[in-house]
Amino acid sequence: MKTALLLVVVAAALAGAMAACPNHCSGRGTCGSDDVCSCYSRYQGPDCSERKCKMSIAWVDGEVAAPHAYAECANRGVCDRESGECVCQDGFDGAGCQRLKCPNDCSGHGTCEYIGELGTYASSNWDATKIQGCKCDGGWEGYDCSERMCPRGDDPLTIHLDAATGDQFVISVRSDTDGSRLAGNAVWIVQDLYGTWETSRPFDVSSASEAEAALEDTDIIVEVDSLAVATYDVAAGDGYTYTIRLSNPAHVTTIALEGKACNDAGCYGKRAMTVEKDPASSNVYSKNGDGADLSLLEADVCSGRGLCDRETGICQCFEGHTGLACETQTILV
User: 21 and 28 in contact (C-beta within 8 Å)?
Assistant: First the structure.
């Protein structure tokens, strides 16, 4: 009798042991009713032994109604269930394979940036923080920033009917958003034809002499012919207009202004200040020739009189032309 009772107890114990949650939920979950594991966050599987990988907006998930729903590894990688890390397909990057890689890592001559940072692209679009491209450093170009730029110049065989003496930039600056008149300091931000940006030292926004000296101190500006400062809106007493004429404008494409708040500790940007756009221009400046047709002044690669060696950035001039940009004619016909 005792033996039979012992056998019943042992059988019941064995049945209970066999009915426990598989692998005791691997220590990554709790055993619930019906011996089913309830896994902790970031774990899955019947015994909670598998790690989950990061979910991101899918490049495509095959559903017409929601083609960019969240998916593990963005559907562009395979999840390593042991480490919980995505193994991305070629060309994709990120913890969740959520973004494109930049070609050749921009060759070390540029920065990899989102499409919205490279142009006017709505941040609300599903791929605004997924597609990337290269923004090349000054002097480099190409989709992967691997090509050197060659010098640019004016074609020596072009006949200019007008005596163009310089390029005039007109910049109007509003007051701060609190309604006070623009005061204090600012810096010039200048860009050349080769994509190089340069920032000047701070200057007093009301001083034409300081503004001119700061601008001329930059490496990009060769010579400032004149610079004048006037009140932007006389009625409102609001801001200034800077009229700048450059004696050698061939390599300057943009001149902009950024307000600075300066004290003994240094200077920092004043984001409230804005720069007016000229109605006839899409840039932050306007260029006026004062009677001279400046559109006739080319800034062509190798002056249109040579071929650019993209590996060295050196112009191979055609016969009869010389100079860094082939801008000088050596043979008169």
Answer: no
